[in-house]
Design the sequence.
């Protein structure tokens, strides 16, 4: 148990500063945008109305821009914290779309939504409440109602978060009112996020962050140096046979066109005192319960220290190693 807690503590340490920074950024964005709006001064009813409308207009423009930035920051922080909560709690997310939506809007998850518990300090609801407080000081009533939050895999290396909302901004003096349906899309890169599968399948002793492989080929003319480099560097590549990052958060190892895969460097598992299996070293097969045949690979398995290496035929074909299967 002592070993398993180590990565979780490291995770909290690394991300604590980030979350604090995100909170500061959110508050700063809000304060800067609102504070630049001049308070109205007037000498006649016509001038008063004109200034109130101008104040409303400035507020709406700033709010519109801030919502885009806030949605991105909160989306990123929410996904990062869900990733960390999966690692921390040792449990996959049961219903990721529902869990993400709840965490994004009000900053909470519970076991019925996710299988994990999580509380965020800066949810979208927190952000809009602060905006409403600032608006009140300007004689404006502001509300943002979230209609729907969707999260999906945009491509192998990024996630898309789409937020549908209704904005309602009203001058307290009744001079103007502004209502709009708004859809915001944020694209979140998953590079640098932790792959929760490794942590959960290694009892917390082996961690792996997502990094994109720069390689195009892995085995040429029987030379396996680049394949070993790919494994040693803990790189990932796109594969239609693999699950996406979001699917990994749910423990789903099914194939997807936007899937990513890595190879398990089992020497790390051996060094951590973990038992290993004679399965294909491609991660989504090795960590799943899918039945398959795994074979040794010439110029890899016969290398000292690599005796554990195995590949299934389909994976070997993808990496150009099918002619090396023993």
Sequence:
């Amino acid at each position: 148990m002592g070993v398993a807690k180590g990565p979780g503590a490291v995770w909290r340490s690394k991300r604590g500063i980030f979350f604090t920074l995100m909170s500061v950024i959110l508050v700063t964005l809000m304060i800067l945008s609102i504070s630049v709006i001049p308070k109205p001064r007037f000498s006649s009813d016509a001038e008063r109305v004109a200034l109130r409308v101008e104040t409303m207009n400035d507020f709406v423009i700033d709010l519109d821009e801030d919502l885009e930035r806030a949605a991105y920051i909160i989306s990123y922080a929410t996904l990062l914290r869900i990733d960390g909560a999966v690692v921390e709690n040792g449990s996959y997310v049961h219903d990721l779309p529902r869990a993400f939506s709840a965490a994004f809007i009000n900053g909470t998850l519970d076991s019925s939504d996710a299988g994990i518990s999580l509380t965020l300090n800066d949810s979208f609801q927190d952000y809009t409440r602060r905006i409403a407080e600032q608006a009140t000081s300007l004689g404006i009533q502001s509300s943002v109602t979230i209609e729907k939050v969707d999260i999906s895999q945009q491509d192998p290396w990024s996630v898309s978060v789409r937020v549908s909302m209704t904005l309602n901004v009203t001058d307290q003096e009744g001079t103007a009112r502004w209502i709009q349906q708004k859809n915001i899309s944020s694209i979140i890169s998953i590079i640098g996020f932790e792959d929760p599968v490794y942590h959960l399948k290694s009892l917390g002793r082996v961690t792996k962050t997502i990094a994109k492989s720069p390689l195009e080929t892995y085995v040429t003319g029987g030379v396996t140096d680049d394949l070993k480099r790919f494994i040693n560097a803990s790189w990932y590549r796109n594969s239609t046979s693999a699950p996406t990052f979001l699917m990994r958060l749910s423990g789903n190892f099914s194939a997807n066109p936007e899937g990513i895969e890595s190879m398990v460097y089992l020497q790390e598992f051996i060094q951590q005192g973990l038992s290993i299996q004679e399965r294909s070293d491609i991660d989504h097969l090795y960590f799943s319960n899918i039945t398959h045949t795994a074979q040794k690979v010439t110029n890899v398995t016969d290398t000292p220290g690599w005796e554990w290496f195995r590949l299934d035929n389909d994976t070997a074909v993808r990496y150009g190693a099918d002619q090396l299967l023993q």
Observations:
- Residues 106 and 144 are 13 Å apart (CA to CA).
- The chain has two domains: 2-189, 191-326.
- Confidence is low (pLDDT under 50) at residues 1-13, 30-40.
